[in-house]
Riboflavin synthase
Amino acid sequence: MFTGIVQTQAEVIAIEQREQFRQLTLKVAPEFLQRLEIGASIAINGCCLTVVQFTTTTVTFDVIDETLRLTNLGMLTQGSQVNLERSLKVGDEIGGHHVSGHIHCTGTIETITSTADNTAMWIAFPEAFTPYVFSKGFISVNGASLTVGQVHEQQFSLHLIPETLRLTNLSNAQPGDAVNLEFDQQTMTIVETVERVLASRAQ
């Protein structure tokens, strides 16, 4: 479980293709890796991965083909910047919202408009997820807990403050980029429950 509060960014320094998975090695600030253990969970662009190896400044993950297909991790190259968050511990503050680290789909950045104090970003997403996206709702974008601005058909907007841009790789985003999306699980559960109840009453 995660909170959607990005703790640091890391640089992809090595990518090794294996038979049925890809191994990613990241260069990370030493303080982020303190008390880390093999088998620990870390969200990479919002996708929960398991630590298989680490040093004082690097951490390595094995990423299976299905994860590469469903997320933007398959598009990473050497030099790419990724968002990181370590898993939630008992007693930790939840500054964002509960995030599982299981990506539902990727979205595509359509437009980015920046002013001195605000960046507006429109993201297109698959039609199947329309019931779960609404104004003021929670959404995780590349692992960052954010609030949906407006919704128009299969697109939603985000309004990003300078601090969010400073802390996340959304500062480097460009139109056409794919971003990992995880919809709020509570919202999905409520919507699907209501749909089942209404469907049963209609029979």
User: Anything to note?
Assistant: DSSP finds three helices and 13 strands in the chain. The radius of gyration is 17 Å.
